[in-house]
Amino acid sequence: RAAEKVSEARKRKNRRLKQAKEEAQAEIEQYRLQREKEFKAKEAAALGSHGSCSTEVEKDTREKMTILQTYFQQNRDEVLDNLLA
Q1: Could you give the C-alpha distances from 33 to 2, 29, 43, 46, 62, in angstroms and in order?
Q2: Region entry Disordered: which residue ranges (predicted)?
């Protein structure tokens, strides 16, 4: 009878340990998924800002090219006259 009680106690202990291990694994997996989601969000934000930065640089470059073209058109005749005179 005492041996049965000891055996039952061991079985209960093993069940509790197994359950605790499963719960810990589930919690670890949930934490890993949460961190992965946060990482992907930060990664997307970083790549997104990089993309918008290059778009802004391209826009700025186009504006400067337009200004240079305008200056060229305005001063072309005068510069040619000075060079040929």
Answers
A1: 46, 6, 15, 20, 43
A2: 1-23
pTM: 0.50
Note the Cα 15 to chain centre separation in Å: 42
Tokens of 31: 């934490």
The mean predicted confidence, pLDDT, of the chain is 88
Three-point CA angle 19, 21, 25, nearest 5°: 115
Rounded distance between C-alpha atoms, residue 84 and residue 14, angstroms: 101
User: What is the pLDDT at residue 58?
Assistant: 86
Average pLDDT over residues 29-39: 95
The distance from CA 43 to its chain's CA centroid, rounded to whole angstroms, is 1
Helices marked H in the chain — which ranges? 2-84
